[in-house]
Write a structure and sequence with these properties.
Length: 189
């Protein structure tokens, strides 16, 4: 009986340690540093951005096989993913178009934009230690004259490491490439 009483605290510590979880880590997509930009460039409202339901959640979703995904409870997005993608594409477009007049369409109080950009992300895939894949259908609508251009970007960007930080950085680079495609459509006559 004395042995059980002496071992009980050790067992309790072992159980608590085994049940404890690692701390959650939170990630945000990166964008270029905002610059003053030109006040005479085109004005662009970005959004809405639509995502597949499987990745529109706080957990980072990782592909582990051809037909299998894993929701990582301890590696999460710092803000809702559609909002973060909108923020990043808006910042990228501001840099690509050399204008300070780009904003997320959800921001109230903004004047009517020259262009409205809508993005429907068909695939937002993450494979640790390999690559990310983004397939985006987008529409650029010129408000004056109500004309539209549609496009599709399919971007595979390798990761520069096997961790979540490298994965999120690869997504940021892939979104920069999507933004360049959209900027070309806006700039074209």
């Amino acid at each position: 009986m004395r042995h059980l009483i002496a071992i009980a605290p050790v067992l309790l510590v072992a159980i608590v340690t085994a049940c404890s979880s690692p701390p959650a880590r939170f990630y945000a997509l990166s964008s270029p540093t905002p610059s003053a930009g030109s006040a005479s460039g085109p004005s662009v409202a970005v959004g809405p951005v639509v995502l597949p339901t499987v990745v529109d959640r706080p957990q980072i979703v990782v592909h582990t096989g051809a037909n299998e995904v894993r929701l990582d409870e301890f590696n999460r997005w710092a803000s809702p993913l559609p909002e973060d993608i909108t923020r990043v594409i808006a910042a990228n477009l501001a840099q690509e178009l050399a204008t300070g007049r780009v904003w997320p369409s959800s921001q109230s109080g903004q004047a009517t934009a020259d262009y409205q950009v809508r993005i429907d992300i068909q695939r937002f895939e993450s494979t640790l230690g390999d690559a990310v894949l983004i397939e985006a259908l987008w529409t650029v609508r010129r408000v004056a004259g109500d004309s539209s251009k549609n496009g599709r970007s399919l971007i595979r960007e390798p990761t520069a490491g096997g961790d979540f930080e490298a994965l999120v950085a690869a997504h940021s680079r892939a979104l920069a490439r999507v933004s360049r495609d959209i900027a070309v459509a806006i700039s074209a006559p």
